[in-house]
Fold each of these.
Amino acid sequence: MDKTQLRQHFRTVLLGMSPEDRAERSRKICRNLIDTEQFAKVGTVMTYLSLPHEVDTSEVILCAWQNGKTVAAPKISWQQRHMIPVEIKTLETGFLTEVAGLRNPVKGAPVPFEEIGMVITPGLGFDKSGNRLGRGSSYYDRFFANDGLKAVRCGLAFAEQVVDQIAVAKHDVPVDMLVTDETVMYFNSAKS
């Protein structure tokens, strides 16, 4: 399947999940991530703010705060087509709901790239080599290209979002690890 067909396939899979199943499996994915050495040792975590059909990152965010970690979320600049990591201290207020239901932080101190230890990355799908299929706008690929960013790139996905192979372009940046409700996969031994 090409990327367009794969995106449609993954959207169908995600939309076919019941809210209860999605919530239960999201909690399992979050617990699998929280139990990793990579998550335990970082002081600053950047994570996406979940759309309704994505893996819900709330439990990871709450756990990070409980353990004294700084939590950053991407603030999207639609005009400049890039993301700025900004610190968030609550999930309740301070967000605008924008394109396709995306929550965008209104304010928050920018977090230097060098301080981010892990970037929790969304994706419509991933393959068994760590390649990621996003929505096609390349925000994360451009973000990962920043020289100062040395963070572990961690994908979160339901098991059905993992396929054997995804076609990649030159600018596509893979993740270093992928956490699902069934397993944790590592792709880049230098980051483990």
Note: The chain has five helices and twelve strands.
Amino acid sequence: MMTHRQALEIVARRRADKIVVTTMTSAGIWPELSDTPLDFPYLPSAMGQGPALGLGLALAQERGVIVVNGDGSTLMNLGCLATIAGHPANLFVIIMVNGIYEVTGGQQIAAVDFAAVAAGCGIKRIYAFSSLDQWAAEAEAALSGAGPVVIALKVEARFGQKTPKPRRPMNDQITRLRERLAAPPAHRS
């Protein structure tokens, strides 16, 4: 099994110039790994809305969007997977599966096979990894090509966590992302 941070370190190395929307625990870890205008920590009071935001961004932009969501957040809006399947876009939904609501008290969640649910919703590209070595070996393939893609990563549960605070106020985050998306794409050599 891998830690949440180890899983995100691989995402940071393989993201290319995709927008990265992080929620809950990931929103607290991600700024230590990346802090660009294309990083958007999304911490609304309603859990589960990250994939919907990511879908909207993916439909509106030519670049891809990665949404890092927890298993608890995904359960709060399980219908998002059917919506994503019905509106194909260059969207990569990473579900961090730890079996608990990590930042709201560590309550156990229902055991769900997110890969099976995604397949049942009609998503064609689905990956599930339970080891760091597997994820490291397949991340480049999983995070490239056309979306939608669902990636379930089994990560260690951490009890006693709190909802992270964003580094910037939401208005500043929105302005920063909007300005970056309005600029011409950066060319990578």
Note: Strands lie at 19-22, 39-41, 65-70, 91-97, 100-101, 107-108, 125-129, 149-154.
Amino acid sequence: MIAFKRILCPTDLSEDSLKALPYAIEFARSFDGEIVIIHVLRALPAPETDFGFGAAELLELASRMRQEAEQSLERLLKGRVPDGIKVRKVLVQGNAADEILRAANEYDVDLITIATHGLTGWRHFSFGSVAEKVVRMAKVPVLTISTKVLSPEADEMYATPLSIPS
């Protein structure tokens, strides 16, 4: 039997990115697993004298960004994960898709649940798709959740377990 004991659930700290969380919760509940929630902070540019600030200022900015991300993640998750579900929160800095894939390997996850923001046209071409790269490059199954098709009833998944065949 396939068991999803460790589920990676990336978030960019938007409500839409958490549309995959109910699925991660239900898999963790069904398999007595753990959810690894990851947020990737953007990498800061190397300090250059042209910007008028140096390494010390960049370190301070990076520290502030991390602290704000930690607080945002705590606020966003508050009340969303039921008691009894094991959760590990991970904050890293770098390219989102690359860091998600690295974390999947590092934390030995069995499944990645990720929301797709549904960018199309030039925006998709310009910005790329984190979910698309994760799907193409992941060494484990990836469950993608479209933020466009989820109904408000999906939030009731916290109370209504998914039916997962044994």
Note: Residues 40 and 92 are 5 Å apart (CA to CA).
